[in-house]
Every structure is written in C-alpha cells, then in structure tokens.
Amino acid sequence: MSASRSSQPVVTRFAPSPTGFLHIGGARTALFNWLFARHHGGKFLLRIEDTDKVRSTKEAIDAILDGMHWLGLDWDGHEYYQSQFWARHAEVAHKLLERGHAYRCYMTSEELAQQREKAQAERRPFRINSPWRDATDPQGDKPFVIRLKAPRDGETVIEDRVQGRVTVQNAELDDFILLRSDGSPTYMLAVVVDDHDMGVTHVIRGDDHLNNAFRQLAIIRAMGWPEPVYAHVPLIHGPDGAKLSKRHGALGVDAYRDELGMLPEAVDNYLLRLGWGHGDDEIISREQAIEWFDLDHVGKSPSRFDFKKLENLNGHYIREADDGRLADLIAPQLGLADEQKELLVRAMPELKARAHTLHQLGEGAGFLFASRPLDLDEAASGLLTEDARSLLAAAHQALANVDDWSHGGTEQAIRAVADQAGLKLGKLAQPLRAALTGRTTSPGIFDVLVLLGKGESLARIEDQILEPTE
Which parts of the sequence belong to the Aminoacyl-tRNA synthetase class I anticodon-binding domain (predicted)? Predict the structure, then answer.
C-alpha cells in the first residue's frame, strides 16, 4: 500500500466542470475545502475540469469564477485547467501500460453491446470482460483504448473522514478506460493525475463520488503514489427529502445574488451549517468558521435545504451590514443617481430592520424616490376614505405649523390631531402612511416624515386631500 499524504501540509482543491453555473452544492463543497485549507494554514486550489470540450463553455467558466469571488473563496495561485495537462495524462496511461497495470483493448462497440445485453439477460451487473486483458500481441493500426487492469482479488478499503470505513470487493471493479481511442484521457484518469501532480492531500467532495474513489485508488496504487485522505460529504436534499432540484432552490450562485437578493456572507454561513455544526451556534463569522472547521463534525446524513432559514439568516446579515454598502447594492435596483444615495444611506437604519432580502430592501426604499402624485397600491387606496381625508387635512395643517421638523416635533403634532379627534394614534398613522408612501407598510411614520422632509411630506398629503382616490 502506498504512503498517505495526511502528514504533509494540507492541500485541498475544488474541481468544478464548466458545463453550467456554480450550483449551490458545488459552492458548499468549495467552502468546505477552502475552510479546511485555511484552518490548517494550507493551500486551496481551483481546477477547472474542462475535459468535456463539447459541453464546456467560457460563459460557464466565467460564472464559476464570478461565483467564487462573490462568496469570498479565494484560491492560491492561478486557476488550473485540466485540458492543459492532457499530454501528462497520456504519459501516465502509457506508464501503466509499460508496468503491466493497463492494456490495449481492441473490443468493438458491437462486442461491448453483446456483453452488456448478455449481462442484462442474466440479470447481473455489467462488467467488462475483455479478451485483450492478458494479450501481448499488438494489432497493428486497429483502433484501441487503454484500460486499467483493475485488481480482481481481495478488497479495497477507504477510511473516509466522513463516511467512516467503506469496503468494496475488487471483483466489483471494472477495467475502465484510461485513454480513449482518439488519445484523450477520461475523467477518471485525469483527476487522479492532476491531484497527484498538484500535491492534493485531502479530497473533500460530494458522496456521489465515493464509488469513483475506489477506481481512482486503483490507479494511485498501480503508480505507487501517496494516497489522499478522502472525505465524501452527503449531498443536499430539498425540504421534502428528495434530491435537491430547481424547485427547492438548486440555482446557480449568481441567482442567489441577482434574483433572490442574498448577501454572500449569509449564503456562506448557511452553506456552512448545511451539513456541519459547532454546538448550537447558528450565526458564525468567517473568522470563527476558519477557527472551528473540521471534518469530524460533518454529518453523515443528507442535509435539507430550507429557503426560509436562508432568508432569515440573510435578514440578520442585512441588519448587520454597513449602510453605505447596502445603499450601493440597491441603488441600481432603484435607478438612483449618486446624489440620491445620501438619502438612502440616512434611511437605511429604518429600512433594513424590516428586510430579509436586498429586493425587499429596495422595495421598502422605493417610496423615498417616488414621483408625485404617488401610485397607491390597492390596500393603501382603500384606507383613504372620506373620513380619512378629513383627518389628513387636519394633519396637514398641524404639520405645516411645525418648526422643529424632527421625530419628536412631528410626533407631537400628529398626536395632538389624533387626541383632538378622539382616536388612537394608529387610526391616523394608517391613512397618513398611505398618503406618504403609497403603501400600508413602511418604516415608522415619524421616520418617514423626517426622511421625506417637510416640503415633500406636505405635498404628498395635499395630493390625497385634493384628489380622492378611486
């Protein structure tokens, strides 16, 4: 058995295939690898596995890099591209051939189909049984693939850091292809060679790759290379326990930012807690995550994605975020000019207290920049009855006489109007909010008055007194 890499400085990697966006499960895998490397003072590498030239696209690569940057998952050195190392992959395949651990297989697609059909008829798993496994005579110019001569006796054991001890009988392993007939490497060969050459010590990935680990170990041992430490993390399921799909929230990382209005620190925190825990801690900073992260507390069962929990967590991080940063994030949503951001920043402490997403934050801020006369929503319009407009007229007169246009000054004036009418404050605040914002929800009514300023506030109230809503 080959030596383990576990005693060497830690090197992890994230190796996505650029055939689509960086999905949420891949982002969690990247985060776990990043945290493990940072916790141990090691290296975190990024390798784009672009061997599928038909499906790999520049747009997908850009989306992966963009998603990694947004989540704050910086990698050490430049990103690697698997297609750059095809010559090296082929070199290793031929070394295995020379050492008797691989063979040229000249089986045709028809012969393979016959074996597959026979296995199906006999209701047994299909395993390649190549007549060329022990052959020594080359077949001239006939096309061939290079297959690994997989061990057939005994068993292979993996001491997985998440799954525990996992054993597979070698008779279940097949003679899989290393090099295709056109000379291109398969994924199974390329990933092993690249991990070895990049010095990867810990392979942390989804448990859908666990079966691959046994095949990849066969290559590693045949080459006499150090074996990595494996940690296969359970996949993410939807709240109903089914495999995570788009209806559950299996979107690209960019969609969480652009379509759902999430902050990267909230997504990072949520993904960290999705399958890993540190006592009862729910809110975990980046610094704490680096200090605490280990593989021992990664759960063995699939995690369930709960969008409501993510949204609530995002609300926490919005409340904690810098007001200027939030203003910069939602200004494009509102179509604001730079000079309008100052008002947005001043309003932010009140606005962010009610928002769970950046979109909600933007919607909540919309009234500040709305043009007169306001376009009232149905609920707000329903509040402005004839009696309500009479109250608004009284409020307008009282506010017009306010010299101290502050929270306290405006409150004193509005409370006096409510008291004179024999009403609780809320009975006046509701139609006043509708007139000032066009909505039935907003920051506190006195905060709204102060933020809008005296002139704009009086003008909006007057619009609703003079023009009864339908």
Answer: 325-464
